[in-house]
Write a structure and sequence with these properties.
This protein is mainly alpha-helical. The chain has one domain. It contains eleven helices and two strands, in the order ααααααααββααα. A two-stranded antiparallel ribbon has the order 1-2. The radius of gyration is 23 Å and the shape is globular. The two termini are 22 Å apart.
Amino acid sequence: MADLLRAGFSRLWRAPVFWLGVAAAAIWGCLVCQSAYEGSQEGIVYFLYDLCRYHCIFTVFLPAVFCALFLGTEYEQGAIRNKLIAGKTRPAVYLSSLVLSLAACLLMIGAYFLPVALIGPFVTERLGSTAGALALTVGGELLMAAALCALCTLGSMLISRKAVLAVVLLLATLGCLAVSGNVESRLAEQEYFQGIMMDEEGQLVDAGDMENPDYLRGREREIYQFVADFLPTGQALAYNFDMIVHPWRMCLCSLLILAASTGGGLIAFRRKDLK
């Protein structure tokens, strides 16, 4: 497997899609810092904790794009079949691809954090949270990205046509993001809203607080919250908009997805007919 990783990283350093992702992430980090600076000039208070969250929606698409363009070419060029002919085992081929995708995505995210770490302290007033809470949030974001990488690697190793792979990964990402957005919007409903009624004279008067029929309660709310915590796209929205309710559960869900998709991918790839 060491030989596969050396060859893979050698190819990664020459891959335009990787460096485009790094550049895009770094530019996004600079834009976030610029926005925070402009907001601070207008009296808006930004914290370093906030700047460490604003990459999550951007991060959601990195694994799909990278795996589709980088790993997807291995089938077209016959690289996977050549590795097996050279005596490499299928688990080693699969795991080396997973390590490459994880490393690439984490390096891209690191490119976002670089300008935030260098510029952020000068445009924000203070940390905005405890060091432990910040570490838990950033760690959870990285686990979320790892779970997405594992899922996209699974698709990349099982779908042999690059065009189909790109469509499947992007549509799946968008679909999960849409589902997560709907779930989060339901969870964000207020329990009460200010009621207004018309009196006998036709004047609008305050009717006091009224229950919101769209507010989720009881078991239904627990199910929606679990879906939001479980889906990586739901986690991305929670981190990005600071709607974190169960940070440790989100981390555990990411680890579960990472382990399950890797284990399932290894089993499926062993049985796949590569022809």
